[in-house]
């Protein structure tokens, strides 16, 4: 858990054109997440305290943005797009294949080293459909074989 | 006036209105979910699709959302166009994809907007055969039951809760087809208007958790127009009963008062009438008996006492009950008062006389238009709907200035707020008065707070002064009225009075009778005391004196519908009908008389207070005329307003104006400097205190002091302390709260009553080791 002082210092270092403390909510969440990997309930309450918003208002933001995680994540995160183009090109089957391969449902961790697989809203990678973000890097078009190979590599690499 | 054409019918509209608003006003029901008159348009549900044909003939007819399309002269709108019907049908089909179709076991069934719209617009069968999306529900406390699977994502709940009622512990989570309306974690909703989620939700996501415990289908409920008995605002309600029991209370629209909403005390306080301690059988000397024997016994004792009879009416007793009791006492030449505390009587009479004098007390809808307000005391728990109206004024840009002694929720929206110890309030108001009227004595030495408030009020188009009678002295009340006068004729004045009929009680009271009666009782000059709907023995300030005087009273006759301490102590207890079980009239804070009807009858025989007094007068051989004629004697030309109508301003002679010099307040003995302040909460009303759902939400009964006072007295949060005076002593724990004034200890009514002190009285505080 990050010290509240660090967070507040982060807040002080935010660009001056942030209109108010409310605007600091997302950067504060990302800053805390970069240290802890995800935000637990205590983190949400801490951010509420720092930004002066209520914990419900922070939760509204935290659960809206797909790059903010409310549950423990693996060392690697694969976000498979399931919006229209990718869906038409087999994203749903990819998501099922991932669940099958990892042996857990989406968003859950099979083991400490396992990657986290999540569905995602449109990534703007329609030309590579079905596409994914692997630790923030674009990947695609994916097939079941390519995905399984990718997951295997992520699971085993140091 | 400008008109649009809807399916060939010419409909007038006001500039700025959209098609849906114009249509609804003309009673053309365009199907909709997310639009609400109080919340406006959002365009989230897509149900209000209509086809429009622009005036410009080279543009083709197309489908638009009626709630987002401004009405324009000559616009041709079609509700029945095939294209529009098809859109509405698809919208319903999509919304119903995940809906659980659990109408037979859903509490909303029968009054569900989604059910109605589906029948009106949608397909009759499901085509989707896949899995439905499911959600876990949250425990939202004792008032609201949560069933998220039924949600159709219209956002009405968050728009009401966050935007309208300004709550921040409930919101919309997640995204896409997983949008979830709830709290960060399980727990009771904190906003005092949360109960409106039940009505605002077009389907059964939020249902009434109290109604659910003893449920009836809406078509089985007996309803009739009633008036809320829980504060002086007089919100219109629609109680629903079945099989001789009251099941729920809903708001009933009054264009100038509560409109679409009601506070949680109004919606859930009704459980008092079903409480298991409620007296339902007459009791003489502790033995249950029938009405005939009880009334005969009462008449005997009254006859024996003759002019040594006293009568206490009540601020929560209707006009009829109060006027009959007063007439009975007049005939007997005994003493009548409608109040049980001399200071509260003076304060209420002063407040009513000042509102009569200024004649500029706004109703709730007008209150929302105010642009600056000075609020003394806590409105949230003394008149919640006035608070809600001021929240709307704040949303419209009004500047709120608050002076308060203990915690007041509205301070979070105040542009200027200051905590003032109860006995320093008058001084503060006087300084403000001098600053505003630029009288001698106005100088640069006044605090910045005073300067800011004075400037805000002076610059306002229509400033409002709002005070709470229960936590004000008569001097504070006069000072606030003088401020309003100094601000020229546009200034509005509101005093929150101490009961649903406090205004009416004041009109029927002669100044000083309460102290006369109390002193007579203390001297043993009251042989028989009749108490109707009042609880003098639990009164914070004078309860201790009444408890002592009780020893000198031969016969205590109590008429009430709740088991108060006074009712428990009665020699003759005569249960009366609760408000939904009788008809009568309340006069609200504006002086608006509003009638309420009998909604239902319980299996037990329960007459109204007026009926019982009339019976007794017959037994005494000097029958009183009926309450309506009695009221006409007091208020010439008075016609009881019919229930369900907007009510009428009661035409009464103005109460005599008393000036501050004439009002005696008792001198406060010096002690270690603590002043008591009333810490109010949602269930803090004699009736609502019997509602289990509300009492579950009671805050801890602690002694609240501010951090500065805590440091000075070396008290830590949670420290055990003893509050004491010559009457009694109470042990409690300290809670540090920055919203309490310096040198003030904010405590709940029950502790004040045990100590026999009121708001502003002195109290000793010492730490227990």
What does this protein look like?
The complex is a heterodimer of chains A (about 160) and B (about 775). By secondary structure, chain A is of the alpha+beta class. In chain A, about 45% of the residues lie in helices and about 10% in strands. Chain A has 7 helices and 4 strands, in the order ααααβααβββα. In chain A, a hairpin with a 2-residue loop joins strand 3 and strand 4 (about 135-140). In chain A, helix 1 packs across helix 3 and helix 2 (about 25-35) runs antiparallel to helix 3 (about 40-50). Chain A is elongated and about 45 Å long. The model of chain A has no long low-confidence stretch (mean pLDDT about 90). Chain B is about 30% helix and about 20% strand. In chain B, helix 9 crosses helix 21 and helix 13 packs across helix 14 (about 450-460). Chain B has 5 domains: about 5-95, Ubiquitin-like (UB roll); about 130-275, no CATH class; about 285-325 and about 530-650, Rossmann fold; about 360-490, Dimethylsulfoxide Reductase, domain 2, CATH 3.40.228.10; about 675-765, Barwin-like endoglucanases (Beta Barrel). By secondary structure, chain B is an alpha/beta fold. At the A-B interface, helix 4 of A face strand 7 of B. Chain A: This is NADH-quinone oxidoreductase subunit E. Chain A: Its cofactor is [2Fe-2S] cluster. Chain A: Keywords: 2Fe-2S, Iron, Iron-sulfur, Metal-binding.
């Amino acid at each position: 858990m990050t010290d509240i002082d660090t967070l507040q210092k982060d807040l002080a270092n935010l660009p001056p054109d942030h209109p108010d403390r409310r605007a600091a909510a997302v950067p504060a969440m990302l800053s805390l997440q970069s240290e802890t990997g995800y935000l637990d309930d205590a983190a949400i309450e801490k951010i509420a305290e720092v930004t002066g918003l209520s914990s419900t208002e922070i939760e509204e933001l935290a659960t809206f943005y797909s790059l903010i995680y409310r549950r423990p994540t693996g060392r690697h995160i694969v976000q498979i797009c399931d919006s229209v183009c990718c869906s038409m090109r087999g994203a749903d089957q990819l998501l099922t294949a991932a669940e099958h391969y990892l042996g857990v449902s989406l968003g859950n961790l099979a083991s400490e080293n396992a990657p986290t697989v999540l569905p995602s809203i449109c990534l703007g990678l329609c030309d590579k459909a079905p596409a994914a973000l692997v630790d923030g890097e674009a990947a695609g078009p994916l097939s079941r074989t390519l995905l399984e190979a990718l997951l295997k590599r992520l699971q085993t690499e140091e | 006036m400008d008109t649009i054409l809807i399916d060939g019918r010419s409909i007038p509209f006001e500039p700025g209105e959209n098609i849906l608003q114009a249509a609804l006003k003309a009673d053309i029901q365009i199907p909709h979910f997310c639009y609400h008159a109080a919340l406006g348009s959002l365009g989230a549900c897509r149900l209000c699709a209509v086809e429009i044909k622009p005036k410009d003939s080279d543009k083709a007819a197309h489908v638009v959302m009626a709630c987002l399309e401004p009405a324009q002269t000559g616009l041709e709108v079609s509700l029945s166009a095939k294209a529009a019907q098809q859109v509405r049908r698809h919208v319903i089909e999509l919304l119903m994809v995940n809906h659980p179709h659990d109408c037979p076991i859903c509490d909303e069934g029968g009054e569900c907007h989604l059910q109605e719209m589906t029948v009106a617009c949608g397909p009759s069968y499901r085509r989707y055969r896949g899995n439905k999306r499911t959600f876990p529900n949250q425990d939202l406390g004792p008032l609201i039951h949560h069933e998220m699977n039924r949600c159709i994502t219209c956002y009405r709940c968050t728009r009401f809760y966050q935007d309208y009622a300004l709550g921040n512990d409930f919101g919309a989570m997640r995204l896409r087809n997983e949008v979830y309306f709830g709290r960060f974690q399980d727990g009771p909703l904190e906003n005092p208007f949360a109960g409106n989620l039940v009505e605002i939700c077009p389907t059964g996501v939020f249902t009434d958790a109290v109604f659910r415990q003893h449920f009836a289908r809406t078509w089985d409920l007996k309803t009739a127009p009633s008036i809320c008995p829980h504060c002086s605002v007089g919100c219109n309600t629609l109680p629903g009963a079945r099989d001789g029991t009251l099941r729920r209370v809903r708001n009933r629209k009054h264009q100038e008062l509560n409109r679409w909403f009601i506070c949680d005390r109004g919606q859930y306080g009704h459980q008092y009438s079903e409480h298991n301690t409620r007296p339902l059988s007459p009791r003489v000397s502790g033995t249950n008996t029938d009405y005939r024997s009880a009334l005969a016994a009462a008449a005997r004792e009254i006859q024996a006492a003759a002019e040594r009879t006293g009568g206490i009416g009540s601020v929560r007793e209707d006009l009829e009950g109060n006027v009959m009791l007063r007439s009975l006492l007049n005939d007997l030449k005994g003493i009548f008062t409608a109040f049980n505390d001399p200071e509260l009587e003076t304060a209420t009479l002063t407040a009513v006389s000042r509102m009569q004098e200024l004649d500029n007390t706004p109703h709730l809808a007008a209150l929302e238009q105010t642009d600056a307000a000075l609020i003394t005391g806590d409105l949230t728990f003394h008149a919640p709907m006035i608070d809600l109206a001021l929240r709307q004024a704040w949303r419209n840009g009004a500047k709120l200035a608050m002076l308060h002694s203990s915690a007041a929720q509205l301070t979070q929206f105040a542009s200027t707020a200051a905590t003032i110890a109860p006995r320093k309030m008058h001084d503060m108001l006087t300084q403000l008065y001098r600053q505003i009227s630029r009288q001698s004595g106005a100088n640069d030495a006044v605090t910045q707070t005073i300067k800011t408030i004075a400037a805000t009020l002076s610059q306002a188009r229509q400033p409002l002064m709002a005070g709470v009678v229960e936590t004000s002295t008569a001097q504070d009340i006069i000072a606030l009225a003088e401020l309003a006068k100094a601000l020229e004729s546009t200034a509005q004045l509101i005093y929150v009075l101490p009961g649903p009929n406090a205004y009416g009680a004041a009109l029927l009271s002669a100044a000083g009778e309460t102290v006369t009666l109390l002193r007579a009782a203390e001297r043993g000059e009251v042989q028989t005391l009749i108490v109707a709907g009042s609880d003098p023995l639990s009164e914070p300030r004078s309860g201790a004196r009444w408890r002592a005087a009780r020893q000198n009273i031969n016969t205590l006759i109590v008429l009430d519908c709740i088991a108060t301490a006074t009712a428990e102590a009665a020699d003759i207890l005569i249960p009366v009908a609760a408000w939904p079980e009788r008809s009568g009239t309340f006069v609200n804070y504006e002086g608006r008389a509003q009638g309420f009807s009998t909604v239902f009858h319980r299996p037990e025989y329960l007459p109204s207070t007026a009926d019982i007094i009339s019976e007794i007068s017959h037994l005494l051989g000097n029958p009183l005329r009926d309450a309506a004629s009695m009221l006409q004697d007091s208020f010439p030309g008075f016609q009881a307003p019919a229930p369900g109508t907007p009510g009428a301003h009661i035409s009464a002679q103005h109460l005599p104006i008393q000036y501050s010099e004439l009002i005696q307040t008792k001198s406060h003995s010096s002690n270690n400097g603590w002043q008591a302040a009333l810490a109010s909460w949602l269930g803090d009303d004699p009736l609502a205190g019997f509602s289990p759902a509300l009492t579950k939400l009671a805050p801890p009964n602690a002694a609240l002091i501010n951090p500065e006072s805590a440091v000075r007295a070396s008290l830590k949060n949670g420290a055990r302390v003893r509050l004491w005076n010559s009457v009694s002593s109470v042990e409690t724990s300290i809670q540090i709260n920055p919203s309490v004034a310096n040198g003030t200890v904010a405590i709940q009514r029950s502790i004040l009553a045990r100590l026999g002190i009121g708001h502003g009285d002195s109290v000793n505080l010492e730490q227990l080791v």
